[in-house]
Amino acid sequence: MQIIEYPSPNDYNKLLARSVFKQVDLLETVKHIFEKVKQEGDKALIYYSEKFDRFSPKRIELSKSELEKIAQKCPQKLKNAIGVAASNVRKFHEAQKLISKQIETMPGVVCWQKAVPISKVGLYIPGGTAPLFSTVLMLAIPAKIANCKEIVLCTPPSKNGLHPAIAFAALISGVNKVCQIGGAQAIAAMTYGTESIQKVNKIFGPGNQYVTAAKQFATIEGLAIDMPAGPSEVLVYMDETAKPAFVAADLLSQAEHGTDSQVILICKEKRLVEKVIYEIQIQLENLPRKKIAKNAL
What we know:
- This protein is α/β, with parallel strands linked by helices.
- The chain has two domains: 43-83 and 116-225, Nitrogenase molybdenum iron protein domain (Rossmann fold, 3-Layer(aba) Sandwich); 231-296, 3-Layer(aba) Sandwich (Rossmann fold), CATH 3.40.50.
- Helices cover 47% and strands 13% of the residues.
- The strands form three sheets. It has a six-stranded mixed beta sheet with strand order 1-6-5-4-7-8, with helices on both faces.
- α2 (23-40) packs across α9 (209-220).
- It is globular.
- The mean pLDDT is 90.
């Protein structure tokens, strides 16, 4: 963790620079993965799953009964919390449904706005070091409300398989298809289609630098994406009215996403910074992803 006092404007770019992979190397790696998936389909997906996730899936797509079995391992307290979050997300997006109204601008000329759902959507859910089951709710529920016919969810498993919270969130969100494949290879599969994963019309969801690069590569192949999201970053401006514990929690919530996360605090008074650092140290001790958050900080 670095503390910089009164930096010169000339140093802003250097201070805000984040560690990234060499773009040429990153794109070359992603391009190679895409080519292998395009040529070999599921065989390539299993190869990369074993290589990167140390997991060898017996089947890439999970059946509903398999999902239900995995979801049983999710603690009831967490299920209740996910249920409340799902209800809130659903309530918010239901209110956004377009109510079409026809307007006759002049005799015989009628105009109206029409919303047409995307037929097949692909959702990428980070699930390796950070199983973002909240992302399942925020992507799948709006897709369901929009009446998308096919919702394909890809998520990287841990060495023990799919995370129970992701399985539970997928079930209550109405996802059609859950595939335990992640990384750039999952994006490639949804771009081209394989024996187990069908080609989609648009890909949504965050990911690490490889996933982000893969989504950008997918656009070259003619596929639509939401945006190149990730890695995580947050900048908090703090004044004397802010609660140090809350500021610390906001910083850690992004730092724990990955070692390539970038968290920045801007504050006019050093005493407030010291209070935040104190709170960070306290909260870090109870954070399951303490090591990752520390490295990011």
